[in-house]
Amino acid sequence: MTAKTADGKEIGKEERHYHPQATNCRDTKEKYGAQWKVANIRDTSIQPHQAKKETFEFDLPEGVRTADITVDLFYEAVNPDNKYPIHTITRRVSLDKE
Amino acid sequence: MRIILLLLIAAFVMPLSNVEAQKAKTIDELAKMFDASQCKSCHAEIYAQWEKSHHARPLMGVKGGLMLTPLALKKGEKGSTAFSEDDPKKMKISNFPCFKCHLPQAVTHAEDSVAVELTEALLAKDSEKVAKLQITCIVCHNEKAIIHKRELGGPEKGVLYSAKEVTSHPDATFKTVKKSAIMNNSVYCGQCHGLGPNLEFDQAFQCANLYGSYLHNYVSGGGTQSCQDCHMKKGDHLIAPNFNDEKQTSELLASALSLHVETLGYEWLRKANTYTPKVVVTTKITSNAGHRIPDG
Questions:
Q1: Coil, strand or helix: which one is B143?
Q2: Measured at the alpha carbon of residue B292, what is the angle toward residues B288 and B294, in degrees to the nearest 5?
Q3: Interface predicted TM-score of the whole assembly (ipTM), two decimals
Q4: Which residues of A are less than 8 Å from B283 in CB distance?
Q5: What is the Cα–Cα distance from B234 to B229, expressed in whole angstroms?
Q6: Is there a domain that residue B243 lies in?
């Protein structure tokens, strides 16, 4: 999720990662690759019957009353450069009532 | 009388010599043993779907990456693994526990020399050779078709198994198709799609554990569809996703995952006369798949 001012300055950026996370059970480092992984220690993947809900909250800088929000959902396979876009949703949020 | 006697001898000797001849010594021999190119002439559409599937490239699934390479590296070399040896010639089938799911026919039908040849091919980045090793029609419709071996016996030579029986099947080698008890059941796919850690090896490790998620998060939540219901509609053998097709993968993921966004802008009152302008964004993702996304 990225928030920008109306003139494009970034004022907030947050990420959430959804995936099973495994170690080799000999140290506390997460591992990639079947040859290193032994068991999941944490699983933030998206499961059936369980919605993933997040709240992102940030303060606007002095004098800024409008923010453009972009929420990007994408998939990474094998390495972070191999991306598959899924959804992009944009919203303009204003503190001024129309 | 003599003719009958001769036939009897043949019948007794054949299976024995067959068992010996059964193990492949080279990658080419193993590939040939499970070669299914003859199926193409009659099952052209299914064959074309399978050719594009991950099952047709189980050792280089995503964009041609030779993912068994770390195991082939010399022990101690950067990136090498617990399964590596200090000399490629020492590599055995058991040094590639990945074969359990990525190439099950190697476990049952290959000599250790195949592991040596594969190791050398990986080190030489010989993708063409590695690509010969596939989860073919015969691996799925014979090798993996029976899990109740004590009750039903193992898969027979020259027989295919499927969700339905075909008493006279016109293929030259596979003259019948018998009914498999599990071919349209999720447990069939579960043989390779993983429950969790593979604890039966002397060095435990984990790859796919999607079948665990299917059982413990989908079925447990009331889900009733099988893997085949969702992934093989009308007998589709692409069994998507195909991660080499970026556009299609994005589209499938977009229909599987919904994203809902709400926003709020307001001025928060911390204490008298100190307003903090705030934006709150809430997101909600839901999935209609039968298991976690992503797995692995």
A1: helix
A2: 105
A3: 0.95
A4: 1, 52-54, 56, 71
A5: 9
A6: yes
